[in-house]
Amino acid sequence: MPKVSGESFDDYVQHHILTPLKMRDSTLLIKKTDPRLMTWGHEHDKDGHVFPSKVYPYNRMHSPSSNLHSNVEDMARWALANLTMASWMVGES
């Protein structure tokens, strides 16, 4: 993406997706999150007991698939944008 857009993946997403959709509390950069609002990924051990994941937070290599830190309000904006685009693509109003 940097070769085509001239921006890092993180900056591109911020400038072309999150900011236009007014997703003000969403970021791909964990350092820009409010630690008081963070949740932590969990896993199950072989006996089915839940424990905090040792691989979370993911590294930057995972940004495109799993590094978006967000909240329900911002994710609702994302869902509405996708629903609106889907309606537009099939010619519905």
Main sheet strand line-up: 1-2
State mean pLDDT (0 to 100 scale).
84
| Helical fraction | 25-40%
**Major beta sheet summary:** 2 strands, antiparallel
The best one-word shape is: globular
Instruction: Calculate the terminal CA-CA distance, rounded to whole Å.
Output: 33 Å
Strand pairing plus helix content: what structural class?
mainly alpha
Number of strands: 2
- Strand portion, in percent? 5-15%
Backbone CA Rg: 16 Å
Q: Provide a count of the helices.
A: 4
The secondary-structure element order is HHEEHH
Uncertain segments are none
In a few lines, what is going on in this structure?
By secondary structure, the chain is mainly α.
Features:
93 residues; mainly alpha; two-stranded antiparallel ribbon
Kindly describe this structure:
The chain has 93 residues and is mostly helical. It is globular. The protein has helices at residues 2-5, 9-18, 63-66, 72-89; strands at residues 42-44, 50-52. The mean pLDDT is 84. Strand 1 (42-44) and strand 2 (50-52) form a beta hairpin. A two-stranded antiparallel sheet has the order 1-2.
SSE map:
Blueprint: H1 2-5, H2 9-18, E1 42-44, E2 50-52, H3 63-66, H4 72-89
